[in-house]
Amino acid sequence: MYTHILIPTDGTDASVHAIDTGIRLAAQLHARVHALHVLPPLPAVSFIADMVQGDACKRRSIEHAQEYLDEVREKAQAAGVPCDAEYVFDNRPYAAIAGAATKHHCDLIVMDAHTHNGIERLMLSNVAHKVILCCDVPVLVCH
């Protein structure tokens, strides 16, 4: 059935449920997982400030990304599931997720149902919704 599951994580509590679900599913299917964290590109002002200060903001963002990905790796290892992981910079998380699914030949995406409130919801800013719309890979959305 599914052999390679993509699990995007943003480090929130909501994504932990999706991580656990994806890893349990991978263990049952004898599949492997690929964990992904999408970092927003640094705005020009932050970029210039970091050049002067020495990339501190970028380093902190990458350290947080590694922590989130390490959490997935540890859970996968505990479940006996092969796992690789990466972080990417993109201001469109849904596009990065769809791109990673294609790049790594994933046949399922397991992600949280992070929803926004108010006007953001009306403007379809929900990342999971956008992934479903722009990706050919099935998406399991966890609540």
From TrEMBL:
<dbReference type="Pfam" id="PF00582">
    <property type="entry name" value="Usp"/>
</dbReference>
<dbReference type="InterPro" id="IPR006016">
    <property type="entry name" value="UspA"/>
</dbReference>
<feature type="domain" description="UspA">
    <location>
        <begin position="1"/>
        <end position="143"/>
    </location>
</feature>
<comment type="similarity">
    <text>Belongs to the universal stress protein A family.</text>
</comment>
<dbReference type="InterPro" id="IPR014729">
    <property type="entry name" value="Rossmann-like_a/b/a_fold"/>
</dbReference>
<protein>
    <submittedName>
        <fullName>Nucleotide-binding universal stress protein, UspA family</fullName>
    </submittedName>
</protein>
<dbReference type="InterPro" id="IPR006015">
    <property type="entry name" value="Universal_stress_UspA"/>
</dbReference>
